[in-house]
Amino acid sequence: MDTAVHEAEGDFGPRDWAQHPPYLSPLYRSTVLRSPSKPLIPMKQCLSVRTGPVFGHDSVDPLDNDLTKNGRVNGEPIGERIIVTGRVLDESGRPVPRTLLEIWQANACGRYVHRWDRHDAPLDPNFFGAGRCITDQEGRYRFTTIKPGAYPWGNHHNAWRPAHIHFSLFGPSFLTRLVTQMYFPGDPLLPLDPIYNGVPEGARELLISRFSIDVTEPLWALGYEFDIVLRGRQATPMEG
Amino acid sequence: MSQMLKQTPSQTVGPYFAYAWTPELYGRRPLATNRLASRGMAGEHIRIEGVVTDGEGAPIRDCVVEIWQAGANGRHAPGAAGFGRCGTDDEGHYFFDTVKPGVCDQGHAPHIAVTVFARGMLSHAFTRLHFSDEAAANAEDPVLASVPADRRDTLIAHRAEVPGGVVYRFDIRLQGEGETVFFDC
């Protein structure tokens, strides 16, 4: 059976706006001029959006899920080595297998490789800060990386972003696309962060990873778990 | 429908995604690019280009446009062949080199699904691109028909034949005058 047709069966449940941030969130200043001001127009799902790109293992290089190795030039990257793992699930709790994740992050000092980042903190010549991974049959992914540092930004006086890792996921459809950020438990900057707080109360806590002693590897790296839930298919396909 | 789990909330891509999403600028292999058409690919080879602007009309340089489309035969190829990704440049400009899609959904005009991400967008925005030279099909298209007539033109990419090929112009205005229609889908 043709992959695209197979993937196209059934409608997806709606984007849950009780979970996602509104476009306009004035405390995050950049939203003021970049938020659509007119209501979204409802659109019936059709084949062109129920399908989506399927990335195979040829999209991922062997070191792509190990950020402590994929940027090495002449030594180990500096910082606290961590393992970040979890499952990608749909709203019914079913695993999302063979789906691509991309992550990117600052280094241990809070500095990005990005050429625009002018934060006065050192680049690490052995850390690039980007990786990819494809989930296994149980929807599981796993990255090894360096714990990112907090960094200042210009949103307001003395604004600092809490440590975070950016995640990008595809899922089975163009509609299941999700870009988000994973945070760390107990970070004192979280209550002050307008990006984290742009998410409705009661939902934002889902963005905080859990420390796990079971994922932690003795004498090697601390472990964090972060599960991600994508839009799922509706149980009963809509007719006509 | 019983839902046991809640959707993970969206967050902005932030300003510093380029080294991960368009890493060819940093000497690394990209997942996807803005060049979907290979030489000899069936169909009319076209360029889609435009500028992404904010509520004051200023170009947005930290924006990514992603597209997903059928081939000229109206079918989605297996894999990721119909997927494209382009970061905007300092002038807010993006482009895709692709082929014009055929009819994918019966009763719909040919179109391309478009997603917009940017710094300052906590959730991404979703729209779709139609072609100006498909006036008859566009007139019958149920999605265009669901859009107020005075906003429909924001979904039409305008065709121009220029030296070197066919270019469709599709500007994306996140807010304000001429604001692009975005969908909840």
List keywords for this structure.
heterodimer, A: 240 residues, mainly beta, 5-stranded mixed beta sheet, disordered N terminus, B: mainly beta, 9-stranded mixed beta sheet, 3 helices, 8% helix, 31% strand
List the quaternary state of the chains. heterodimer
Q: What is the typical, i.e. mean, pLDDT of chain A?
A: 94
Which chain pair has the greatest contact?
Answer: A-B, 88 and 77 residues
Low-confidence stretches of chain A: 1-8
Question: Termini distance of chain B?
Answer: 18 Å
Gyration radius of chain B, rounded: 17 Å
SS-based class of chain B: mainly beta
Q: N-to-C SSE series of chain B?
A: HEEEEEEHHEEEE
Poorly predicted ranges of chain B: none
Mean pLDDT of chain B: 96
Tally of strands of chain A: 12
Structure overview:
The complex is a heterodimer of chains A (240) and B (185). With 240 residues, chain A is mainly beta. Chain A is 4% helix and 27% strand. The longest helix of chain A has 5 residues, at 3-7. In chain A, a hairpin with an 8-residue loop joins strand 8 and strand 9 (178-183). Chain A has two helices and twelve strands, in the order H-E-H-E-E-E-E-E-E-E-E-E-E-E. Chain B is mainly β. In chain B, strands 1, 2, 3, 4, 5, 6, 7, 8 and 9 form a nine-stranded mixed beta sheet that branches. The longest helix of chain B has 6 residues, at 135-140. Chain B is globular, with a radius of gyration of 17 Å. The two termini of chain B are 18 Å apart. The model of chain B has no long low-confidence stretch (mean pLDDT 96). Strand 1 of chain A pairs parallel with strand 10 (183-184) of chain B.
